[in-house]
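Researcher: Here's my situation. A collaborator sent me these components and asked whether they could plausibly form a single complex. I don't have experimental data yet, so a predicted model of the whole assembly would be a useful starting point for our discussion.
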Amino acid sequence: MTSRPGGRRPRLSIVEPVSRWFDRQPFWLRLLIALAALALVVLGPLGLSSYWQSVLFFPVGVFVLLALGLNVVVGSAGLLDFGYVAFYAVGAYTTAVLGTTHGWSAWQALPVAIVLALVAGVVLGAPTLRLRGDYLAIVTLGFGEIVRIVAQNSGSLGEARGITGIPHPSPVLGTAFTLRPLPYYYLVVGAVVVAVVVTVRLNRSRVGRAWSAIREDEDAAEVMGVPTFTMKLWAFAVGASMGGLAGWIYASKVGFISPENFPFFFSVIVLAAVVLGGMGSLPGVMAGGLAIAFLPEYLRRAAAGETITDWLNKLTGGNVADVTEYRVLLFGAALVVMMLFRPQGLLPSRKRAAELTQASPETPPAPEGAEQAGPAQPGTASEREDEADVVGALIRDGTDAGTVLEIEELGVEFGGVVALDAVSLKVRSGQIFGVIGPNGAGKTTLFNCVTGMVKPTTGRIRAGDHDVTGQKAHRITRAGVARTFQNIRLFPDLTALENVRVGADARHRTSVPGALLGGRRHRREERTGDRESRRLLEYVGISARAGDLAKNLAYGDQRRLEIARSLATGPTVLLLDEPAAGMNPSEKRALVELIRKIRDSGVTVVLIDHDMGLVMSACDRVGVLDFGKLIAEGSPAQIQHDARVVEAYLGVPTDAA
Amino acid sequence: MDGLTLGAIYALIALGYTLVYGVLRLINFAHSEIFMIGVFASLFAVHALGIDVGDPAKTGFVLAASLIVVMVVAMLASGVTAVVMERVAYRPLRRRGAPRLAALITAVGISLFLQELFAIRYGREVLGFPRLMEKRQLFELWGANVRTDKVLVLVSALLLMLALDRFVARSRLGRGIRATAQDSETAALMGVNIDRVIMLTFLLGGLLAGAAGTLYGLFFEAARYNIGFLPGIKAFTAAVLGGIGNIRGALAGGLLLGLLENWGSAVLGGEWKDVFAFTVLVLVLMFRPTGLLGESLGRARA
């Protein structure tokens, strides 16, 4: 699931303590440090020779920018893109064509270059993001090649000769952009700052949480109301536009581009920068880009470079004069070595570092033998009423709707196997509805169907007033149906609070533009989302663990967290799939209490469980599934005396089961 | 005929992707370099036999013997490389239960590393491949030019694939492969040595890629460090087209892709040939991701 070096205990991130120390300092000191860093970046290159200034622009600056862009795709959203160079190429070629054949100035071409790269990202993403991760990787690789081949074969793009005479940007603030590298260096610094700001803003918004959730567990994210496809597309688009920006800067500086500037290994070098620094870690990614671009250039000039070249020549039996010839070889090897020994990168992000260094057990502590009797329930009645409002307030449809979930003649087949056969059910508002049945009776399939994870073969499903048959899972969640999973599916490396906030975001609308501009709705949603999520953690009784990673919670707490996460989506119906599995009797009692509390808050509960005692005592109505058919429905007392139910459980001689 | 010949080579490489994917659910990106090594090993073997560019073509027994020697050398070279790669890079990742992302990044890293290693050692230029056999037109069939070397490529590729199919369907080790492909945990519980099975799949894939390398050298008479890249992607496309994880699918996919590509370049012009193959890949993945024959190594019947 997540990377975890076996046995080896990696050193702690150095980013984490430094950034923590930084946060503790008084404002004036932080400002001073920031200004000093800025001064170094701005004034430092003034003292360098023109050669090194030029190196700072390309490859160093351009690679840092590209690494930041690819990091949005790979680090934030966890999508593997082997053809990132394509977007860089689109940006560069747009600039070149507009500048040479249409007479546009570089500044006019800038927005077009970014937008076209973004469009390329969407065009590539739309058909391919539905694919599994490894297919995505190979398709992006193909796309990178296609762009290069198209450039090579199109007369209007100069074919293999490329395009020359791309105009430099016109002067800004008295600074002329000619062949001198320094102005372009500042341009690239500016672009890097923009890229960092964009990434930080997005990561701290609904979009960033959605990306994390997708990275952790895409299916669970979709069911928690994350529009996974749209969000993945946004990741591609944002990453692509940063690539386009880099392409624009490059083309307008060097004035000449050809397909040779955009080979396949370019994408892999940028990927190496991201991996080396640490996927998802901004300081890491920037350092990675810096190192990968700067080291070969440095070694090329330095005395050590010759020694290293000699040594490598001996090792490989090669005979090259320039250490940069070994660049791609070494980065290829670096990728392998990093994956083997330090997959989190050299400067990992806070979260990934925590994930890899905390002494966390593989699985949560076994529920059996856990002596503590569930988390403490908050005490006074008035407090409880207060909390009940949290859940009640989130419900969008009225609670007096009568039937909140209506299933008609629902049928599901998996390649000839009938999992559900014409099941019809009505769940009334304010009930706790139990679904029981022997193993393989189709209970979980029923839940999967209702929540959109499995498409029904026949039949209709209505949630409140909405017909949700065959809709995408996140839409069904937004229509007021939430669920938990039989085998808990939290986002293991997000904190408890972040887990709940992903759920709460199902009710939010902020997307990339809103998060970038910091619009009013975005701020309001962030505020209320945070407050509601904290209160929900309190509601289920685990507010003390808000800052802990979900995977480090005790088993029972993980169940509660999953319930809180589902409640955060503001459901009218909550489907609980074996919530009591693996709990001891006292934990079960506490759970029943929680379920009743949820019902009293106005959320209808449908629950699957094998514990007859629990089902019969907690539920108002019970439905029994057997071999995909609903064989009985009624009050617990009726069910207990139903002959067919007894038969289903105890079997009759003719029954092969 | 060109399409079929090329398709047969694609199919041989595709089997390597398919076998490894079937067992490990891993796209072994570096497989294209295993093929590249097969081409180089063939070239070295040919040189070692004292044959140089410009020498007269061989005939009869000498031809058969040298062909077999060259192919065996190439198969061994590729097979061993594949096994070493699995041991050094993939197995530790598997032990750790690393995510797919890590395996893919590793694969692309190995791929680049091997390419560059050969580029630095043997230069970045195209190396000529001596002509082993006379390329004589046998006859014309429906306008297709049936040539000796093409027949040889096609026939030997088909024979190798038939051998693999029999091996996986009939032998004890083949049963192990199929069991692991279906459910590796249960297979392990039933006494199948998973590590051995995985090594075997890499070995088989490597052997076939090596043979493909020899045939490629014979047909195109060239070797270059990045020669594996395009055939690799196309073979992967072929594997997906036929249904990845499906041995006969790889054969069908390879031949079909070879024909499609040939047709595509006739219609659109040769320079778009490679774009055409990628487009086929994207279309297949979008509309029929399980391929023409469905994806399953486990269910490959005898």
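Model: Some features of this prediction you could bring to your collaborator: The longest helix of chain A spans residues 50-76. The longest strand of chain A covers residues 403-414.
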